[in-house]
Amino acid sequence: QAGLTQPPSVSKGLRQTATLTCTGNSNNVGYQGAVWLQQHQGRPPKLLSYRNNDRPSGISERFSASKSGSTASLTITGLQPEDEADYYCSAWDSSLTAWVFGGGTKLTVL
Amino acid sequence: EVQLVESGGGLVQPGGSLRLSCAASGFTLSTYWMSWVRQAPGKGLEWVATLKGDGSEKYYVDSVKGRFTISRDNAENSLYLQMSSLRVEDTALYYCARNIMDVWGQGTTVTVSS
């Protein structure tokens, strides 16, 4: 099953803004949007955003998501050291009837 | 507290079988879509299977179709993944996740090796 496309790595400075992208197609990201997950080393993933920009309780407003066509984006403002992690996007693909994941983006905070 | 706890992982030879369990607490599992997601060592997340809350729909990644079965037990409030004909490439940390992946367990490790 085809996956979503994410850049392998992004590096930004402390207190800067990072924008991570996730490209799919009209059957997945373009259909219902994407969920964004954060995973620190050795920890399970944590949901950051769903339905494009709904945040679960407890997730900082520094994390915001959006979608344009078949590309979803996660913007993290005021980068902190604890934001250094792997970020995954995922979406339900209505054609494949499957969840598809991006390969993940490793965010480094300099 | 909403929680998922996986168990059942271990070391198994190629061609062998394992049954993973995911015990839910703090919510009724049967009212949610539930999924299994795996992560091979040093790799990204890979969706494995999804079960609709009422059990009427099941979906699998192509690589496990015919070998893995997702199911649940309402009385136990638990999700299962029966894995057979295991391959070396099935080696991974297996997570269960709720619905739109808003709740995850800590995972259970499956190692397929001779």
What does this structure look like?
- The complex is a heterodimer of chains A (110) and B (114).
- Chain A is mainly β and 110 residues long.
- Chain A has one helix and nine strands.
- In chain A, strand 3 (35-39) and strand 4 form a beta hairpin.
- The model of chain A has no long low-confidence stretch (mean pLDDT 94).
- Chain B is mostly beta strands.
- Chain B contains no helices and eleven strands.
- In chain B, the strands form two sheets. In chain B, strands 2, 4, 5, 6, 9, 10 and 11 form a seven-stranded mixed sheet that branches. Chain B has a four-stranded antiparallel sheet with strand order 1-3-8-7, with no helix packed on it.
Distance between the termini of chain B: 40 Å
N-to-C SSE string of chain A, H for helix and E for strand: EEHEEEEEEE
Radius of gyration of chain A, in angstroms, nearest whole number: 13 Å
Helix count of chain A?
A: 1
* β-sheet strand percentage of chain A: 35-45%
Rounded to the nearest angstrom, the radius of gyration of chain B is 13 Å
| Overall 3D shape of chain B | globular
Coarse morphology of chain A: globular
Q: Report the span from N to C terminus of chain A.
A: 35 Å
How would you classify the helix and strand content of chain B by structural class? mainly beta
The number of distinct β-strands of chain A equals 9
Whole-number average pLDDT of chain B? 96
Biggest interface, chains and residues, is: A-B, 22 and 20 residues
Q: Quaternary arrangement of the chains shown?
A: heterodimer
State the main characteristics.
heterodimer; A: mainly beta; three-stranded antiparallel sheet; 1 helix; B: 114 residues; mainly beta; seven-stranded mixed sheet; 0% helix
